[in-house]
Amino acid sequence: MFAVRRLIRFLVSLAVLVVASFAMIHLIPGDPIRAALGMNAPPELVAQRRADLGLDDPIPTQLLAYIKQLLSGEFGTSFISREPVGQIIVDRLPNTLALAALATVFALLVAVPLGMWAGIRTENGRNRGTEIGFTSTTGAAVAVPEFLYSIGLVVVFAVTLGWFPPAGRDGVISYVLPILSLAIGPIAMVARVARVETLRELSTDYIRLARAKRLPASRLYFRHLLPNTLTATLTIGGLLLTGLIAGSLLVEYVFAWPGLGMRMVESITMKDYPVAQAIILVYGGIVLVVNLVVDLLLAKLDPKSTIKEA
Amino acid sequence: MRHLLRTPSGVIGLALVAVTLVIAAVGPAIWGQEAETVNAAAALQGSSAEHPLGTDHLGRDILARVLAGGQFTVALAFLATAIGAGLGTLLGVLPAVLPRRAGRLVTGAVNALVAFPALLLAMFTAVISGLGAKGAVLGIGIAFAPSIARLTQTLSASVASADYVAAARLLRVPRWRIATRHVLPNIGEPIILNLTAALGSSLVAMSGMSFLGLGVQPPSYDWGRLLFDGFSRIYVDPMVAIGPAIAIVAAGIGFNLLGEALARSVARAPVGGKQAVGKGAAMPSSGEEPVEGAVLSVKDLTVTFPDGVTPVRGLSLTIMPGEIVGLVGESGSGKSMTANAVGGLVAYPGVVTAGHMSLCGEELSTLSEAKRRKLLGTSMAMVFQDPMASLNPALKVGGQLAEVSLVHQGAKRPAAWARAIDRLRQVHIPDPEKRARQHPHEFSGGMRQRAVIAMGLMGTPRLLIADEPTTALDVTVQRQILKLLREVSAEAGAGALFISHDIAVVSELCDRVVVMYAGRVVEELPVADLVDGASHPYTKALLASLPDMETDRDKPLASIPGHQPSPADVGEGCAFASRCALATDRCVERPPLTRYDAAHAVACWHAETRKAEVAIG
Ligand code: SF4
């Protein structure tokens, strides 16, 4: 039941997204083609491009044509390079997704144990020092944007120490710095959530009972505590992934990563509207899908949320 | 303000924000001239004494440009935040005042947008409005609106349900007036707090846009744009990029830490919540010999906290095999803390001391950690008040039972599982094979409590500690659980400590009653003597407060006037004196627990006379 309602919401959002991306070009004040091609472009060329995009048809006809196009996997053609936009996306999307997915996995693997450790160590207000250190470090780490991490990492590890390549995608080693830049902020954020969750769970009766059963620490923490801290952590993980997708835009730019984000920045700068429009649509679609999957997964994985539903 | 300065992060945040704001205020006036001074001869220099951050392609000093560019950077952040706050507040308050349907639509839209990354929205507006600060600021502002709207919604929903808003509605105050007069002023403070952090995020996001070349365009410059210019030279002169980067980082961190510290200073509730459990400190062993043959023998048990709160004061307790002892008292009397202390579950920083404390003849304080773990894990079972909360919601019920055997008895998985099913059957759970594979949420409250009891039976329990095990259950289920407890303790020959605030339940189940008041035992007697033999004024009052067959049901329960002193301020004399009808001058001194016969002990100066009266009368 929840799945159906959630699916409907997804479809509505998707429809809104498609309309928004369609409207984007029409919202550009003045003549977007003229703006893109420059003031000195021959009028015939402008007219031809307008016709290519069907900009002279009535709006509803255009919207319909646009949707038909999307359904058949057509995304138009780049103004600048004349490549089909679909091909650009197919070429570049995997590079972006690889970065985002690896960074998410890395972040969760580091952050969850870190947060649990901090929670266990600071239970009931002991180890004040750890608590203050943890909250201020993570608080500061969250505030630094990915692109500044990447610049810092490039300066230290690529320019000064020369351990890693400063840019480009070339072998496993070239993934290290981009993934680190993307993961540090999320690590701090997830670790905070994991700590608060851990503290909350530690005070529950079932942990009290598990302690009364004198389970060894490893079993207590990993079997009893961990699964219960995961709900909130996974929710954050989902938000994180969508945030990472946005963050990857900037990180790709710093590392000249051949991903979608790099291309989007270029296309916006060069007023290559079909490309920008399609990439924004793809990014938006990814965000919607990720949110959908996270919600459905949570509903399935977590008996607690089922209780709430009931 | 004082709260703010208490944590290092608050201090750092405040300092960074102050520096940022000062630079923003005076920057252009002081360094503006220098920032614009073109010097072709000094173009594209790296870091030097004259130009610590180097120079740009026109030979302008980058440090001066960073200092002078702060104003524009901060101004853009303020502008974006203002747009976000204005739009967000509007969107957020609307559902509280709009008709239901329209309100829900707005809420839905906001929820959908919150999950959308701000940068993506900012890019969208950047495409539409073209490159430049205007589009970026607008985009970031709009992108922040949904999260501020959500915050406003949550806050105003709570205000909208408040009585005074309901009253205003009854008086037919127009909706917009409710919003501006009642809702907004009450949510202003938390929103402003959140805006501090939002300012930091806007500043960082705006810098990101400028850094991508999508924000501020030359000849204007903000920190992001300076970073954009410096970035292409990063391999040669890292300093030209590091300068502006540090400025952005410092301001971003500053606003964020300050926002957090502000939020903390308003809501000072510590995370982690209520009392939890941890290892209590070890107890020094001294004092009399434990009682021969008892499953539990405790002498002078005391639990103290560093702030001087002493919830349990010199409590002694003996439980023989097969005996069910009821521990009665109001909440705050220390009865649950006693259970925790016996179970070794007193929360840090509580300290447990005892003359001796032995389980099945083994002195707990002298056992090695491993032995103690095993003894407590298999010989002692605990049942807590709320069966909803006692089982781990994420694990299968059978698995939670089986692990006791896995961990403490070295059983193999199938054997442990079989034992778990057997124990579930023993506590009368129908279809135990199927039930074992279910999660706790598939169990009813009564069944969960049965499962918890079954968990206690996985070992070979010698002592069962049940802390208000039936309070959360309804009456019929309560009876079944009581019956089960009696059955279980009889079958296993285990002693039981049954903790309850309800003397009626205790008298139904137990063999012996121990009455606690303000951390001490005030009376101890067999249940059979309870009605006729109770002689402490507090026990009598508890009994008198019970409805019985003859009591008129319509009459309110007799309750004891006055309050039990809290564990923090128990005085020198008899703790019950302020509520006691028999109190005399003598009661300023504390009466010792005096034994009248093998089974009956009382701590009251005037109990003896009353006992004599009872004997005569
Ligand atoms: S000692 Fe005094 S005050 Fe305390 S219960 Fe007895 S009579 Fe009452």
From TrEMBL, chain A:
Where, subcellularly, is it found?
Cell membrane
Pinpoint the ABC transmembrane type-1 domain residues.
93-294
Please give, as recorded in its UniProt entry, the membrane topology of this protein: Multi-pass membrane protein
Coiled coil residues, start to end: none
Q: Which domain of life is it from?
A: Bacteria
Say if the entry is tagged with keyword Transmembrane helix. yes
Q: Which UniProt keywords apply?
A: Cell membrane, Membrane, Transmembrane, Transmembrane helix, Transport
Q: Which CDD domains match?
A: TM_PBP2 (cd06261)
Q: Where are the transmembrane segments?
A: 7-28, 97-120, 140-163, 175-194, 229-255, 275-298
Any Pfam family the entry gives: BPD_transp_1
Q: What GO cellular-component annotations does this UniProt entry give?
A: plasma membrane
Mind telling me which InterPro entries this protein's record contains? BPD_transp_1_N, MetI-like, MetI-like_sf
Q: Which Gene3D superfamilies match?
A: MetI-like
One GO term of the biological process aspect: transmembrane transport
Q: Which family does it belong to?
A: Belongs to the binding-protein-dependent transport system permease family.
The protein here is known as: Peptide/nickel transport system permease protein
The species this protein was found in: Sinosporangium album
UniProtKB/TrEMBL annotation, chain B:
Q: In the UniProt record, does the keyword Transferase occur? A: no
Record bears the keyword Ribonucleoprotein: no
One cellular-component annotation, GO: plasma membrane
Give the record's membrane topology: Multi-pass membrane protein; Peripheral membrane protein
Q: Where in the cell is it found?
A: Cell membrane; Membrane
Q: Which PROSITE patterns does this one have?
A: ABC_TM1, ABC_TRANSPORTER_1, ABC_TRANSPORTER_2
Q: Enumerate the spans annotated as ABC transporter domain.
A: 296-543
Identify a single GO molecular function assigned to this protein. Answer: ATP binding
Q: Which ranges does the record mark as transmembrane? A: 12-31, 74-98, 110-131, 191-214, 234-258
InterPro entries from the entry?
AAA+_ATPase (IPR003593), ABC_Ni/Peptide_Import (IPR050388), ABC_transporter-like_ATP-bd (IPR003439), ABC_transporter-like_CS (IPR017871), MetI-like (IPR000515), MetI-like_sf (IPR035906), Oligopep_ABC_C (IPR013563), P-loop_NTPase (IPR027417)
- Report the NCBIfam families cross-referenced here: oligo_HPY (TIGR01727)
Family per UniProt?
Belongs to the binding-protein-dependent transport system permease family.
What is this protein's record name? Oligopeptide/dipeptide ABC transporter, ATP-binding protein, C-terminal domain-containing protein
Q: Which organism is it from?
A: Sinosporangium album
